[in-house]
């Protein structure tokens, strides 16, 4: 099994920045892809960004492209989400996810989430 623990959420004013981190433990060798999702109250969970564990291949949702950057530190088994130029509509619980396959849309592991609140 793989355990994912997010950190770094908080309250920030619009235009500000936050950096989320997601530390993986357990059978981390089984991870091929890591991603970030978010869920606002009353809304469905939506994809934010993903990165392949062994390459620099990244992909972003259009809503965050140019503002958010996903990166990884394999030595620390940690993935980051740098969020700049934050908007009130970015307010949500942010979840880290991991997948055993480098391809597809299935995600096998999930963190518990960290809250991000952007005030106007």
List keywords for this structure.
120 residues; mainly beta; four-stranded antiparallel beta sheet; 11 strands
* Mean pLDDT over the residues: 95
Structural class: mainly beta
Write down the Rg: 13 Å
Uncertain regions spanning at least 5 consecutive residues: none
Q: Strand-and-helix sequence, N→C?
A: EEEEEEEEEEE
Total E-strand runs:
11
Oligomer: single chain
- Helices, by number, come to 0
What would you call the shape?
globular
Layout of helices and strands:
Elements: E1 2-7, E2 10-13, E3 18-26, E4 33-39, E5 46-52, E6 58-60, E7 68-73, E8 78-83, E9 92-99, E10 109-110, E11 114-119
Parallel strand pairs: 2-11
Antiparallel strand pairs: 1-3, 3-8, 4-5, 4-9, 5-6, 7-8, 9-10, 9-11
How would you characterize this protein structure?
The protein is 0% helix and 53% strand. The chain is mostly beta strands and 120 residues long. A hairpin with a 5-residue loop joins strand 5 (46-52) and strand 6.
In short:
With 120 residues, the chain is mainly beta. 0% of the residues lie in helices and 53% in strands. It is globular.
């Amino acid at each position: 099994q793989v355990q994912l623990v997010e950190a770094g959420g908080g309250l920030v004013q619009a235009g500000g920045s936050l950096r989320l981190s997601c530390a993986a433990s357990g059978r981390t060798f089984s991870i091929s892809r890591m991603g970030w999702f978010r869920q606002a109250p009353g809304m469905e969970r939506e994809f934010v960004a993903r990165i392949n564990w062994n390459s620099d291949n990244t992909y972003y949702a259009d809503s965050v492209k140019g503002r958010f950057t996903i990166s990884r530190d394999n030595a620390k088994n940690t993935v980051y989400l740098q969020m700049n130029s934050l908007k009130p509509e970015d307010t949500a619980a942010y979840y880290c996810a991991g997948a055993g396959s480098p391809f597809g849309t299935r995600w096998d592991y999930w963190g518990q989430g960290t809250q991000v609140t952007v005030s106007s």
